[in-house]
Amino acid sequence: MTAQNSGEPMHTTKPTQCDSSGNTAAASSRDQLDSAEIRNSERVTATPSGLKTQRAIDQWLNQYSLYHQNTLNKQIHFICVPMIVFSILGLLWSIPVPPPIAHWGDWVNIATAVILLSTLYYTRLAPSLAIGMLIIASISIFILSHTEQWTGLKAWQWAVPLFILAWIGQFIGHHIEGKKPAFANDLQFLLIGPLWILADLYRRVGIVY
After folding, report:
1. pLDDT digits (tens, 9 = 90+) for 54-110
2. What was the pLDDT predicted at 21?
């Protein structure tokens, strides 16, 4: 599987890009550099026999990184992306399932089905990252299964405000970055975002993926 084209060049969230003197030429030049940078990251250059081309997972992570160069935006994502994932699982957990399926147990629901499907997708890209994501998802499901007992709230009652708050943080981060979110050009980046954070954690502790 190879990374797909991420689409048109990204623009800042400001109505226009210009410096204090009103000169838009520099902004146009920055747009062109951004565009060229993204296109270059998407290419897998033909190499002589014996040399390895870039792996699909590396292509995806490198493309995603191009949308997240600002340090503050990165820090916001390290907080907000896990919040979004957890809140989505909470919303999916709250969706009723047919009674015959519900009899199989609390863990058999739409949230666990989505986790299994996403794990298959991640396994195709990087098995070690898929294992990490599955462990994190399993911990999340364990927490969700006890949420009402611990807090007296149903999962959706806290998942909705958490989801909204996290996305507000995300868009603030991208306003600071001056670029649209990656998923605006390819929805698959919604699945790559959590991997990007986990891959960063792996690198910090020396785990190969």
Report:
1. 899 999 999 999 999 999 999 999 999 999 999 999 999 999 988 888 778 778 899
2. 41
d(CA 107, CA 122): 21
Cα 27 to its chain centre, rounded Å, is 28
Give CA–CA dist 164/181, Å, rounded: 16
| Whole-model pTM over 0.85 | no
Tokens standing for 132? Answer: 């990490």
Which residue carries 């990204």 as its tokens?
Answer: 10
Q: Assign 3-class secondary structure to the chain.
A: CCCCCCCCCCCCCCCCCCCCCCCCHHHHHHHHHHHHHHHHHHCCCCCCCCCCCCCHHHHHHHHHHHCCCCHHHHHHHHHHHHHHHHHHHHHHHCCCCCHHHHCCCCCCCHHHHHHHHHHHHHHHHCHHHHHHHHHHHHHHHHHHHHHHHHHCCCHHHHHHHHHHHHHHHHHHHHHHHCCCCHHHCCCCHHHHHHHHHHHHHHHHHCCCC
- Distance (Å, rounded) from C-alpha 8 to C-alpha 15? 17
Q: Whole-angstrom Cα distance, residue 70 to residue 76?
A: 10
